[in-house]
Amino acid sequence: MSLTQNSPPGTGYVGTLTPEQSAALKKLWAALIELQEKGVVTVVPEPTPVALVPQPVAASTGWGGGWFGSSTPAAPAEPVVEAPVVLTLSELGLTAEEVNSSLWKNVLGGHPDTLLLRFLRARKWHVGDGLTMLLNAFQWRKELDVEDVKVLGDNELDAKYPKFKQQLEMGKFYINGTDKSGQPVVYLNVHLHRAGDQDPKTVERLTIYLMETGRLLIQPPVETVALIFDLTNFGLGNMDYTLVQFLVKCFQAYYPESLGTILIHNAPLVFWGVWKIIEPWLDPVVAAKIKFTYKNEELLELIPAEHLPDSFVGAGLDKYEYQYLAPVPGENDAMHDEVHKAKAVAEWDALCRKYESKIKEWIKTGTDNSAAREAIAKDLRTQYYKMEPYIRAKNQFQRKNSAGKSILQPDGTTIWTYHN
User: Would the CA dihedral through 308, 310, 313, 315 be positive or negative?
Assistant: First the structure.
């Protein structure tokens, strides 16, 4: 999670970067731009000195050696020089236009630097590895046509992926409120899922829908979500290894640094055999974020009682009842307004090019222009939400409930309503 105003320097988020981290960000931007301009880029890692290694001490009986004598001086540090990373658009199966398009479609209403920093942190600031990971994510998004969960409405998705809406109506997952750190909380009711009840492609698409829709609910400076796997009433028939593998891959490879906290709640004894299979799939960084909870009261360490649904008896106070809000006729009419769409998209594109020009200026001169980039990033966020009605179908978080309230507002902010 990034709470910029509270994060100390060096945590790797916008506004907290050390000079070395800022240099890595600039190098990643430069490599990404060069790849688009030339079709190939070579990223040469910076040499990293290894720790001093004491040399073996020869046996001695004199005062100059042995237990009480001076040891042989450590060997000089030798730089560790990693092999250059060479990437070409042809080998990646991407064009320069696809790379640029995927970049800005990923930014959405966020800060452009934030996207690149996610991949740098995930690869421990190795620029070549971060660029490789970023481009693999772009390639994955192209291959799976991730954009269709944005441009297609729920009814269209249901027609394309059988029983898609049924999964939403069942409440297999729901997002309700925030935790103590401001992270949106995603609840997964595992007992409602059975692998054979729907096509695997439908579940895959539902997972992508959850990722892409959930991103809209994250409010800057927060960058992550909390995930609660509720295993109440779990049985082996609910286990879907293919889905778990896909979910793990998404978080670790394609949406890195998006998970803040993972709670596995109320796991029965039978789950431990399952866990032995799943645990090796997890990156150590992700595994370190997992905590097992067994009593509902333990959830209060993460979530305020006022925000926790009262279905967690004895802990939650929010009288929350999940209800899927169905599509409203005409809600996506703006997507057919080609005149206003073209104007909104052109204004967005102009800001993207303006941001890119500031990046190129930073690369060329070396002068820090983060304040200017920050100002453009704010304009980009404002313009994105002006453009969104013309390019993206509505989701249930934007629809109004029986009280006439919606969670996602037109300007991208969220308003959660709790019933205590």
Answer: positive
CB 148 within 8 A of CB 157: yes
Pairing of strands 173-178, 40-43: unpaired
| Whole-Å CA distances, 319 to 100, 105, 316, 322, 400 | 45, 37, 8, 10, 18
**Dihedral angle at the C-alpha atoms of 234, 228, 242, 91, nearest 10 degrees?**
180
Give the type of residue at 214.
G
Maximum alpha-carbon separation in the chain: 93
**CA dist list (Å): 247 to 170, 254, 352:** 19, 10, 31
Q: What is the mean pLDDT of residues 291-311?
A: 98
pLDDT at 64: 30
- In this predicted structure, the answer to whether residue 253 has a pLDDT above a threshold of 70 is yes
For residue 274 the two structure tokens come to 């399952």
User: Which amino acid is located at 163 in the chain?
Assistant: K
Give the residue from 222, 226, 220 showing the smallest Cα distance to 289: 226
Contact 350, 417 (CB under 8 A): no
Structure tokens at 184: 């949106």
What are the residues facing 230 on neighbouring strands?
189, 265
Cα distance between residue 90 and residue 206, in whole Å: 31
DSSP 14: T
Q: How far apart are CA 12 and CA 292, in angstroms?
A: 28
- Taking 3-state DSSP, the helix, strand and coil percentages for the chain, each rounded to the nearest 5, stand at 50, 10, 40
Please report the beta strands in 107-257, taking only residues with DSSP state E, as ranges in sequence order.
173-178, 184-189, 225-230
Residues 119/107, Cβ–Cβ less than 8 Å: no
Average of pLDDT values for 236-257?
A: 95
Angle formed at CA 41 by CA 40 and CA 46, multiple of 5 degrees: 165
- CA separation for the pair 398, 409 (Å, rounded): 7
For domain 154-301, is the CATH number 3.40.525.10? yes
Helix (H) or strand (E) holding 23: helix 19-38
Taking the C-alpha atoms of residue 340 and residue 389, their distance in angstroms, rounded to an integer, is 10
DSSP H helical ranges for 183-253: 200-217, 241-249
DSSP reduced 3-state for 127: helix
How confident is the model over 405-412, as a mean pLDDT? Answer: 96
Residue listed under structure tokens 């067994």: 294
Residue 125 three-state SS: coil
